[in-house]
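Worked example

This section walks through a single chain of length 342. The input is the sequence exactly as stored; nothing has been trimmed or padded.
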Amino acid sequence: MTTSPQTERERAENEAAAWLVLLSDQPDDVELLGRFEAWRAASALNAEIWARTARAYDLVGKGEAQHRDHWASYAPGRAAERALPPAYLPPPPAAARRLFTPRRLTIGAAGVAVTALLMIVVLPGVLLRLQADVATATGEVRAVSLEDGSRVSLAPDSAIDVAFVGRERRVRLLKGEVFFDVAHDPARPFSVAAGDTVATVLGTAFDVRRDDNGTVVAVQRGHVRVEDGSTTPTTSADLHPGDWVHVIWGQGAETGKAAPDEIADWQRGQLIAHNRPAGEIVDALRRYYHGAIIVHDDAFAAKHVSGLYDLRDPVKTLSELATAHGATVRRISPWLLVVTRG
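Given that input, the structure is written out below as tokens.
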């Protein structure tokens, strides 16, 4: 399965943020340096995103060290004012060359790195909320009633825009995952759009999730019509209880079956996985973790796993998942977990 250019950019941004924290935390690790240099040289996109991440770090470093004592309590024994070796420095621009000077590290390498990471990761979420009628925060599950009597349950870190006009009931899924229990009204079809993918019903219960590659629609009860004109070939699917379709934006679609009572299992605080990539389990856990989770082990992310996972305790679940499949979870700060090779 290939990924879209936007997905590749987002992945590079996450990887650059992880490298920033790892290099700040382990400045003397020569093997780590070699892996970083190989990553940065692997593509022009990696080099571009690294330079942008370096500039964000540089801007944060210009602030006063107002929270130095606070960060010190979370990073005892770390070299708070030690510059990294010159070999860690990225190429021009000049701002990037100044990335790891002692002045930039006066509030602690881990502190500044995490602050820069939050600038990169959190700001887009703030902008998204400005577009939404209903949104949830990390770890928050919220149920709301729409004006037509339909019930909507939002998973954590999700957002929707609602537009009921005349004979049309429209909802846009801006981010995340939502379960819809639609009030039956033959005169007013109910549609949910996620990108170019549109699911249309009269009255039914179904789940819609946006992921890095597209949209997943799964039906618990009733009948759902899913269409997407951007795929090749065009997607057009009729789903019944237990059916699901994963529309891969700009490409095609995959279909399958699941037990209807397992659909929207997140409403019970759990995830039932049947031969799914570990990276998908991590994506689900991210919505429950008050911080950032960076996976820096592609082999772990690609491994297919099965099991029942507790979403309500993301740190414990992630640690158990990683340990069982040859990876390690490192807690860089109270708000950052990094998964690395074991």
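What to look for: The first helix runs from residue 5 to 25.
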